[in-house]
Amino acid sequence: MRNATGGRRERLLDDLAWRYAAPLARFFERRVRNRHDVPDLVQDVFLRLSALPDPTTIALPENYLFITASNVLRDKARRDTVRHADQHDEFQETSLEGSDITPQRVLEGKEGIVRLRAALMELPERTRDVFVLRVFEECRMTDIAAAIGISRRAAEKHYVRALAHIVQALEDWRHS
């Protein structure tokens, strides 16, 4: 007996979905701002119908469906108010362009930084200071020489040594 009732229930739900999906969609289209919400709202009506213990006992299914549709709209309005839906911008997938930098390139860059740091630590302190002040702090050679207490020519030699060491270290790493 249970299978016969279950089969009858399924046939009724299928019949109601087939007959009333389009009218419910039109009902919602006239009442909501975002047309993308319409299929979800129609589905919510039929979900509520299917949750009934015995939908075959409904005397006027059309009335029930449209009263339920009104309740679904009311519930949506409450949710939208709580979530401040009117203050949200619609997601535009084209506005989020991807990066041309591949994950492999990012990894290589991070490894290069690690290697650069290691090469800098291999340098004598004064040579490293000259290089860091020139490259990272963008100081002029004259200012570097004055800050360290050496001649401008000596500061330039330290910079050239540091640059040669770092270039060689990065070349060795790249070819390994």
UniProtKB/TrEMBL annotation:
Coiled coil: none
Species name: Sphingomonas floccifaciens
Segments forming domain RNA polymerase sigma factor 70 region 4 type: 115-166
Family: Belongs to the sigma-70 factor family. ECF subfamily.
Transmembrane found in the keyword field: no
Matching NCBIfam families: sigma70-ECF
Protein name: RNA polymerase sigma factor
Transcription regulation recorded as keyword: yes
Keyword annotations of the record: Sigma factor, Transcription, Transcription regulation
Gene3D superfamilies: 1.10.1740.10, Winged helix-like DNA-binding domain superfamily/Winged helix DNA-binding domain (1.10.10.10)
Domain RNA polymerase sigma-70 region, chain residue ranges per copy: 19-80
